[in-house]
Design a protein that fits this description.
Largest sheet: 7 strands, antiparallel
Helix content: 10-25%
Number of domains: 3
Strand content: 35-45%
Number of helices: 10
């Protein structure tokens, strides 16, 4: 019942975020909050006009301020859109400046963490039940590594697993990032769909990666770990592992319903010869369990000869059983740490593996971050230097496979990597280079 003129006067004192929020109340407020006069005032205070508009009046010339002229012949909401677009462009410029320097070992931007903070980027999961109701989980702990970020959600009020149908992972950015204060979840935000997972028959359709006295862990591709309470078979926590490669694009450039598709690689002129195979590749490997890092290393000068191409894969040997000088010890006992509001734990024999494979130009070729687990092999160690149990870790996706062998030395209580081989899909190599292996 309040007159529109009075509401407009009140709205004129609001900042941009509050004005966008009040426009969501109803249609009447939306139209009033689109007023060009209010938004031009906000726009001008943030972005000073760089020119004036000249008009001729009889024999004299006068300057008309951009603010006055800009109100004419503009549709409602024009200056709101201009302000938002310019703010988004300013944030993109700031982020691009941060991600420009590249780490020569990982081939990835050096300041990913700073870039994410500058953009106000965060991540949420949305659980949808069979009735269509959505449950948004905001609270999350972040753990940054050399090439990935691990996100852990836990809560005391997870919806019942039996009624859930899907889980969606979103990147979330404030529409108008404010560097002086933390982003508010009640302010205007944009969602970008990163991945969608189906939760129907979770324990049957996903891969069991380990358990302790309280929880069981199940892995969903790509890079999601769901922890279930053993007794109740209900969600205890959800952990996502996201590789830095294209992380900002996937978390910001997609829509709320469609995932961002990575652009195809443009082949460059090179001396790549299918008869010769791949050469001068580099691998950065990170093995961690949340807070603990077990291995972080770079392997250079990897190659694949023609004889190493078989069954649709090209083989890159990183660590060989035969060369004991390259066998690597791990720091600590492998395990994945988890926590909730009340309990903490560590599931042994599973961890997060970050793989960053660079081509001969130093460009990221195959990258992933995913939870994996170790299996005790039935074979005993045949190596003279290592007398102990052999464990294997295998990972596979549409682009390649990783096969890892470790030996547990009981005397020194440590693991040694004695064999590490990457298998790259020939289809991926052909698409990358525009050739035919």
């Amino acid at each position: 019942s309040m007159p529109s003129e009075m509401l407009m006067k009140i709205f004129s004192y609001l900042d941009a975020v509050s004005l966008l929020s009040v426009g969501c109340v109803n249609k009447h407020f939306y139209h009033l909050a689109n007023d060009n006069g209010i938004w031009l005032k906000i726009y001008s205070s943030c972005f000073q006009p760089k020119r004036t508009i000249w008009k001729m009046k009889s024999e004299q010339t006068e300057t008309v301020s951009l603010g006055c002229a800009a109100l004419h012949d503009r549709r409602p909401g024009y200056w709101k859109k201009e302000y938002i677009f310019k703010q988004i462009a300013a944030v993109k410029t700031r982020v691009m400046r941060l991600v420009k320097p590249v780490d020569p070992y990982t081939g990835l931007p050096c300041k990913n963490k700073e870039a994410m903070k500058a953009s106000g980027l965060s991540w949420i999961i949305v659980l949808k039940d069979k009735n269509g109701k959505e449950h948004v989980m905001e609270k999350a702990n972040l753990s940054f590594k050399d090439t990935s970020v691990t996100i852990l959600w836990y809560s005391t009020n997870w919806p019942c697993l039996d009624i859930l149908s899907t889980l969606k992972l979103f990147g979330v950015m404030p529409l108008l990032p404010d560097q002086s204060r933390a982003p508010s979840k009640n302010g205007p935000r944009r969602r970008s769909l990163i991945a969608e997972y189906h939760l129907a028959n979770l324990t049957e359709s996903s891969v069991a990666v380990g358990a302790d006295k309280l929880v069981q862990l199940f892995s969903l591709n790509p890079g999601l770990l769901v922890g279930l309470w053993k007794e109740k078979n209900e969600i205890a926590f959800v952990m996502a592992s996201l590789h830095y490669h294209q992380l900002l694009e996937r978390s910001t450039l997609g829509s709320a319903t469609v995932q961002y598709a990575l652009p195809p690689n443009k082949p460059v002129l090179d001396d790549v010869d299918p008869e010769y195979g791949l050469h001068d590749y580099s691998l950065h490997l990170d093995m961690h369990g949340g807070s603990c890092t077990y291995l972080c290393g770079t392997f250079k000068s990897l190659f694949c000869r023609k004889g190493d191409i078989a069954n649709g894969y090209l083989r890159l040997t990183v660590v060989s059983l035969k060369d004991s000088t390259k066998h690597l010890p791990l720091i600590g006992t492998l395990g994945l740490s988890w926590e909730t509001d009340v309990f903490k734990g560590n599931v042994k024999d599973c961890y997060v593996m970050d793989v960053t494979l660079l081509d001969e130009t130093g460009k990221p070729f195959w990258c992933f971050s995913a939870p994996v687990y170790m299996e005790l092999s039935s074979e005993a160690s045949s190596l003279y230097d290592y007398m102990g149990h052999i464990y294997t870790t295998d990972y596979a996706d549409s682009e390649g496979k990783v096969c890892l062998e470790l030996v547990w030395l009981k005397e020194t209580k440590e693991y040694f990597i004695v064999n590490l081989v990457l298998y790259i899909s020939t289809k991926k190599v052909n698409n990358w280079y525009g050739t035919n292996y």
